[in-house]
Amino acid sequence: MKFEEILELAERFEEKVINFRHDFHAHPELSWEEERTSKIIEQVLIELGFDGVRRGFGGTESGVVGDIAGKKEFPIVALRADIDALPIEEEADVPWKSTNKGVMHACGHDAHAAILLGVAHVLASLRDKLPCKVRLIFQPAEESGVRSGAQQLIKEGVLDDVEAIWGLHVWSPLPAGTIGYRSGPIMASSDIWEVEVKGKGGHSSRPHEAKDPTIAAANIIMSVQTIISRELDPLETAVLSIGRLESGSAPNIIPDKAFIQGSIRTTNSKVRDGLPEKIERIVKGIGSALRCEVKTNYIHVYPVTVNDPIMIETLKEVASVMFGDKSLVEVPIAMGSEDFSFYQQKVPGAIFFLGITDSQKGTDAEHHNPMFKTNDEVLKKGVALLAALAMEGTKRSDR
């Protein structure tokens, strides 16, 4: 179909989308608590005539899924937006500033929800021209980590009969209006590793009578870094960090326990699979050498986010026609993580970035920052592009 009609509809619904965004921003809700947001989304989809609208996942009132019928019942193309906020006190002075103390949309999920509601309006206006059924997924708890919303929604069937899924993320590292894409890995996995070290406490003046867990912990912290520098191919991307170290209560007491907690990220799923063994081997070796008992715990959180190459080619073709080649930017791999990756493990999927940075408007703060602001001027572009991809989505299987 001609994209001019989609662009015109995105322009027509721009004010409505901005109003949705401001409302969601003023009333942010944490992961699995997005009840108000979900009720608004549910009501809009029902009013627009979406089929099978469902609200509430994971035993909560959060999250909404709805379908709009096309010429074909199957396959289904899905579009996903995350809707949760973060436990951050907002510092930006905007008229729609958060009214929920200590909670803020500091990652742009308010924009994602508003954009997808804009897409709902566009698709409802083009109902008779839809080539296939489109499913809109308003997902809770992207920021929830181990209890990710994507995993729960998949368990509850949101990907049933879905052939492909698209996602969008507003992106402050990119200039406003640019479209960031990458084929293959685009965001890193994110896992947590923990080590409990048990020694024998004692007085600092008689260290020979103790088994010092702090020395073991210090050696573990230094040695696990060699996984990155000496056990992985230098061309691989990975990062290991220590976020938490606990031990002791006084300067003259050797404690009997120490605890280490850190994160580890990579952009290669095979590398990720081998990391738990590498950490455990080093930790156990040091524990044995320094006469301490050690226990490791590796917590898988988010997989690598891997974009389907064919879908990225579709994105580039559509965006180029709609906005010109100069709107497209091939982005480097981001070491942040996304639970959109869980959808991609089940069906072909692609997520892309929509730039929001404009220093004149103050929309250049990093994500998860109390001064983060979304650029309202780019929202209609996100609406138009997602709607166009929904119309083109079935072409993936025709190539």
Automatic annotation (TrEMBL):
The cofactors required by this protein are:
Mn(2+)
Key word Nucleus present? no
What are the entry keywords? Answer: Hydrolase, Manganese, Metal-binding
Q: Which Gene3D superfamilies does this entry report, sorted A to Z?
A: 3.30.70.360, Zn peptidases
Q: Which InterPro entries match?
A: Amidohydrolase, Bact_exopeptidase_dim_dom, Peptidase_M20, Peptidase_M20_dimer
- Pfam families assigned to the protein according to its UniProt record, in alphabetical order: M20_dimer, Peptidase_M20
Organism superkingdom:
Bacteria
Instruction: Describe how the cofactor binds.
Output: The Mn(2+) ion enhances activity.
What Gene Ontology molecular-function terms does this entry list?
hydrolase activity; metal ion binding
Record has Metal-binding as a keyword: yes
| Residue span, Peptidase M20 dimerisation domain | 193-284
- What family does this belong to? Belongs to the peptidase M20 family.
User: What name does the UniProt record give this protein?
Assistant: Amidohydrolase
Species of origin: Acetomicrobium thermoterrenum DSM 13490
Q: Which taxonomic lineage is given here?
A: Bacteria, Thermotogati, Synergistota, Synergistia, Synergistales
